[in-house]
UniProtKB/TrEMBL annotation:
Record carries keyword Zinc: no
Name this protein carries in UniProt: Peptide/nickel transport system permease protein
A Pfam family annotated for this UniProt entry: BPD_transp_1
Lineage: Bacteria, Pseudomonadati, Pseudomonadota, Alphaproteobacteria, Hyphomicrobiales
Gene3D superfamilies: MetI-like
Family matches, as InterPro entries: MetI-like (IPR000515), MetI-like_sf (IPR035906), OppC_N (IPR025966)
The entry's keywords: Membrane, Transmembrane, Transmembrane helix, Transport
The keyword Transport is annotated on this UniProt entry: yes
Compartment list: Cell membrane
TM helices/strands, residue ranges: 56-78, 188-213, 253-274, 305-325, 360-381
Residues of the ABC transmembrane type-1 domain: 186-382
Length: 393
């Protein structure tokens, strides 16, 4: 029995059937559960999903988050106070952490040391005493400190044994623990990048945005200023501006002075990038619609144009922050940046400016290791954020 509908006669009008059921935009019948989950996801959730797939960027973000959290509690993390001197252990090499002693599990410990002086080279030689087991203590009482310069405390995450030593990264010429000073130095070196990039972004987005949106004489003047600043070599300009700061300034004023210098020199590249993007985007139809509706220039730039190239801004920020960290490190290494008693990674590297010091005490170069790791982490994080900022690609 044939149940098919008969074909219409030649020349007869075709019959159309229209469903009168209401249209359900999120109908589960039209898509699978996985498709529905993606369809209903917000923009931030889509960005997070794409960023999470970039494993290297995710690991770098976790690493940087841990570092920036650590600078909040560096007094607790450091085994020693920033200024504690161990005069019996000057230029002591790093100690190795052991778990077993004579075949028995003891837990994390280091061996005590005995110092001998080489009369030919006047070099201090340290030998581990195999019978002196010094167990490492955790969540313990140690050197006293003032938490953020306000609250007295003496609790530490890790401490040496009672009447013992714990120099995991060695000591410097004054017997100060290098690891503790690296932990304290992270507070300055990491925050100077964030403060500097905030100042640089403010100048770059405002000046570059106005130049790209309005053009004319203002754009011409801004481009000439940018060309002049970019034609000057960076290091001599850093040195000149840093030398202008009076030596009588307090460490806090010097810190903000270096931050302003780094911000003033870094805004030019961002301003030029913002200008070029706005020159292309200002001709779009939605910009004309916003103008016809009476939106101000600031609102159009802030709400309509800048979000169009947010991925580029994120990438520029993650590249500029390590550049500022390197700038502070270079200035402090040359003796023109931050000064004692402020401690940063650049100041710690000044201990290794002599070739003879590097030859005899190479552990004084360890502060360069966190600088390298932070710069790599920011670059990897920037790649992931740049891709995640446009999840539909």
């Amino acid at each position: 029995m044939n149940t098919q509908s008969p074909l219409p006669a030649p020349g007869a009008p075709l019959q159309h059937y229209v469903s009168i059921a209401p249209f359900d935009l999120q109908s589960v019948e039209a898509m699978t559960p996985e498709q529905s989950k993606v369809f209903q996801a917000s923009q931030l959730r889509l960005m997070w999903w794409k960023f999470r797939r970039h494993r290297l960027a995710l690991i770098s973000g976790i690493f940087l988050a841990a570092l920036y959290f650590g600078i909040l509690i560096c007094e607790w993390l450091a085994p020693y106070n920033l200024h504690t001197r161990n005069m019996d252990y000057i230029y002591a090499p790093p100690q190795r952490v052991h778990l077993f002693h004579n075949g028995q599990f003891v837990g994390p410990f280091v061996y005590g040391r005995q110092m001998t002086l080489d009369m030919d080279t006047l070099k201090r030689n340290y030998v581990d005493k195999q019978d002196d087991v010094q167990r490492i203590r955790f969540f313990c009482k140690g050197d006293s400190y003032r938490f953020w310069g306000l609250i007295e405390g003496d609790r530490h995450f890790v401490c040496p044994a009672e009447n013992g030593q714990l120099f995991l990264a060695g000591t410097d010429r004054l017997g100060r623990d290098v690891l503790s000073r690296i932990i304290y130095g992270a507070r300055i070196s990491l925050t100077i990048g964030l403060v500097g990039i905030s100042f640089s972004f403010l100048l770059g987005i405002v000046i570059g945005g106005l130049a790209g949106y309005h053009g004319g004489i203002f754009d011409l003047v801004v481009q000439r200023i940018i060309e002049v600043l970019q034609s000057i070599p960076s290091i001599p300009l850093w040195m000149t501006l840093a030398a202008i700061m009076p030596i009588t300034w307090s460490p806090i004023l010097i810190y903000f002075g270096i931050t302003v210098i780094l911000g003033l020199l870094d805004w030019t590249g961002l301003a030029r990038a913002v200008r070029s993007k706005l020159l292309a985007l200002r001709e779009e139809d939605y910009v004309l619609a916003a103008q016809l509706m009476g939106a101000s220039s600031g609102r159009i730039i802030r709400r309509h144009l800048i979000p169009g190239f947010m991925s580029h801004l994120i990438a520029a920020a993650t590249i500029s922050i390590p550049g500022m960290i390197l700038g502070e490190t270079a200035l402090s290494f040359l003796g023109l940046g931050l000064r004692a008693p402020i401690t940063s990674w650049g100041i710690l590297l000044t201990e290794a400016r002599s070739v003879s010091v590097i030859a005899f005490y190479p552990w004084l170069l360890l502060p360069i290791l966190p600088v390298i790791l932070v710069i790599l982490a920011f670059n990897f994080l920037g790649d992931g954020l740049r891709d995640a900022a446009d999840p539909y690609k």
